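Researcher: Next entry in the queue.
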Amino acid sequence: MKRSGLRLIVPLFLLGMLVFSGLIAYGAETNLWINPEIKHQTIDGFGASIAFLTSEVFIMKEPYRTEVLDLLFKDLGTTIIRFKTDVNTEFTNDNDDPFVTDWSKMNFKRDAAQVFVTKQALARGITTVISSTWSAPPWMKTNGMLQDGGYVKPECYEEFAEWATAVVKGYEKFHGIPIHVFSLTNEPDLATTYDSMLVTPEQYVEIAQAIRRRFQKEGIKTKLVGPETMGTIHAVKQYVPKLLAEPRSIDILGVHTYADNDFPDLARTGEKYQIPLWVTEWSKLKKNQETGIDEALTLAHHIHEALAIGNVNAFLYWGYWWNGVTPEGLITASGLDSYYETTKRYYMFKQFSRFIRPGMVRIDAGSDLQNLRISAYQNDKDLAVVIINKNGAQQRLTLNLPGDAKLDIYETSDENDCVKTGSITVKNGKATELTIPANAMITLAGPWKHNPSLKVEVPVKNSATSISTFTKQIAITGFESADSQIGSYNGPQSTISISADSEVVHSGNKSAKVSFASKDWVGATFTLTPGTGDWTGLSHLRFWMYGDASGTSFNFVLEDAGDEQFQLTSPLRVDWSGWKEIVIPLSEFQSRTDWQASHAKVNRQIDYAIKGIHFFTNNHGKGTFYIDDIEVIGE
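Model: Structure for this entry, 635 residues:
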């Protein structure tokens, strides 16, 4: 097939334009785009835990206690609270029959602090209560202790189910507290010197199914969340295949994100199994950790990655409060001193939780300014746009919205604590300029109305880089032996095939042909054989791609000599037909922070030679494209 003379030099801003072609331009330069027509996950809410140091607030004198409760459960805007399942409810066995509960032997009088705080939270707007189990009562465990791990004895699986049922019914009966979600174990892959319990994937299924049978018999609607492992990879690889085999053992896939995390894989898992994804715990967990703007921005960035890359439906921070020894909470509190202090992370968390309301849907959003992290959320009447600037310099951008909006601007920075600093009005899609302060986060929030008729192509910017200035090149592959260089993966509802093709080629005798039909996720991998030569001075990746105008957006990843992976923050949208030359500055690839192989040599810079290229998508769609003549070029 004859090749055309199309050429595309692609800095990151142009990749973004290729993706979000439904954006409004009206002749203005576009730095931030929102596409309400591409919808992602529905938000279930935000929250945190009150496990362990609950007494710090419970014993606090008035009016300080009420002030803390108002801050956490009204001002913050959270809707989820997570407490520690109280083992005192059945510290000794009520009887020898796990199918008959002796309520006279159950004790619901030992959890006063958690009960008080939870009731206060419910009165102030909390709508979801999670009971998470750090340990079963000692008599059910192999080590006979609350601490140091230990497993539930197989002969006690039904006893555990009886206890879980009694906890759910008892908190409602004796305290008026509904438990909406129950977790049978916190971090089943970690034994600690405090309350802990180990549970293998196989054991998890048996215990969870026992709980399900008991809940069903008792007419209990409480959902099960799990496995709450230390990281996402362990959950997805080890627990999910067992827990989500039919009949399912959990209703919500809940994970902690302390350890091994792969947010793209978590998103694919949620799509594959059509199950809600909740991050149920995260913090930096460092003694004497900083509570200023840098640490708060780290939290904001982590939440952004969970929402915008992991597609999670709910995010819970570790502690609503903690003491001053290890100030891990959103608030630092001392009950004995009747002292409390809000941290910068409290206000950074509020930038999400106060304005992104349950029921809102995340929609496509992005920016050509690579130092910004942006996500957007909408419901029938309101819009919330979150913008994080971890750069040491302020950023000016132009915001375009396809519709009408009146949005207040809230800022958390060194100077401001989720303070309203202004407002913007957008009428009929007219562009508006914004300034994002250095090392800050802003949230735009308010009423808006999407106008679907406002669909104008983003004007293509002319790159200042001339192709004629590239005089140095190293060929990576032309796919002349493509069958040995290509691979694929796909979800259960999708298909993908990759092969060498001799009909549609840019040069030589073969190209790589990719045909796909995606209903959940598909991916293509190209293992490259780099050419020899001097790699110094090389600055751009160049390849030819034959598009079919399918409109499918693909994430794009490079793998370097040390197996470190680098990803473009905006996907590449295949919205053209025929051959097109694509030239991307290597500086636009950023080292992945969500996942790296355990053996990768991570140093945040591309080490030559480039060993692999990966394309993957979570979008629904089908099509065929071809790739040929991959090389690295420079002046």
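Model: Confidence is low (pLDDT under 50) at residues 1-30, 456-468.
Researcher: Noted, moving on.
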